[in-house]
Specification:
Elements (H helix, E strand, L loop, with lengths): L1 H9 L12 H15 L15 H12 L5 E5 L4 H9 L3 E5 L10 H8 L8
Helix pairs in contact: 3-4
Length: about 120
């Protein structure tokens, strides 16, 4: 372990990496994606590595949502889902799902979203 750590330090892996992950990791992810799905992705422009789901969700919300954007989320959920939406000034719209198959009632979705029958989202 000490030798591997020393080697990493000697090779310059002793500071924060690029915000979207080191090139070798993004390239490996792109290769796996192509192998498993047949879909080619550009590791430089189409793959982002995050330090976890919480940070990834927060970044996605900042990038995609404007203040007051209504955002549908289904229960069960983690507290940080709501916190993230509120922190990014989005408006959480909650719909409950029910075990054992975690389906939701379309009428509950209509009611929560404020949709009238026949109206497209």
């Amino acid at each position: 372990m000490r030798k591997a750590a020393q080697k990493a330090i000697d090779l310059g892996y002793n500071t924060y990496t690029r915000y979207d992950g080191i090139p070798e990791l993004r390239e490996a992810i792109a290769a796996k994606q192509e192998l498993f799905t047949g879909m080619r992705v550009d590791p430089e422009n189409e793959i982002v590595v995050s330090a976890g789901a919480t940070g990834a969700l927060y970044c996605a919300c900042l990038a995609l949502l404007n203040p007051a954007t209504r955002s549908l989320f289904l229960s069960p959920y983690y507290g940080y889902h709501i916190s993230t939406l509120i922190a990014t000034e989005a408006v959480p719209v909650h719909v409950r799902t029910c075990p054992p198959d975690w389906r939701f009632d379309m009428r509950a979705l209509d009611k929560a979203w404020g949709r009238r029958r026949g109206q497209l989202w």
